[in-house]
Structures are given as C-alpha cells and as structure tokens.
Design goal:
By secondary structure, the chain is mainly α. It has four helices and no strands. It is globular, with a radius of gyration of 14 Å.
C-alpha cells in the first residue's frame, strides 16, 4: 500500500466511486480516508451528491457527452486546464 496525501485522495474520489481504480489504488484511498477526517467528509459528500444525481436523473446521457465531461473533469483535476 502506498501512502497518498489529501490532494491525491480528493482527485481520485470520483473514479473510486465509479469503480475505475485498480485494487492498489482503492486500498490507498481507503487507507487514507480511514485516517483523515477531512477526506472522509469529502468522500461522504461525494457519495450523497452521487446518490441525489442518480435519483434525479432517470436517463443516461449520450456516451459522447459522458466521455467529454469525464475528460474535462480529469483535465481540471490534473491541472491541465484552469477552472
């Protein structure tokens, strides 16, 4: 298990919740969240937010739109694009 910081954890929470991480990355995030109240609170918010969105949206967006949004989020999170 690799020790990761808050910034790395917060940048990967979305992918974590979407089951897009490797087993090692999942363990790293779970380990960090277990010992960091701030990241645990952010995680809890993201879970609640995703639940509201899921319950509010009864149809999936076109795959092209979903891919573009995810690509933009990743660019912002990696610092490639200023927000």
């Amino acid at each position: 298990m690799t020790e990761i910081n808050c910034e790395e954890t917060k940048a990967q929470v979305h992918e974590f919740l979407q089951n897009e991480l490797t087993k090692d990355e999942v363990q790293d995030i779970l380990g960090h969240i277990a010992h960091c109240d701030s990241c645990e609170a952010d995680y809890d918010f993201e879970v609640a937010f995703n639940k509201v969105v899921k319950e509010s949206c009864d149809e999936a967006p076109p795959q092209e739109l979903a891919d573009r949004i995810l690509q933009r989020i990743r660019a912002i999170n990696s610092g490639e694009e200023k927000h």
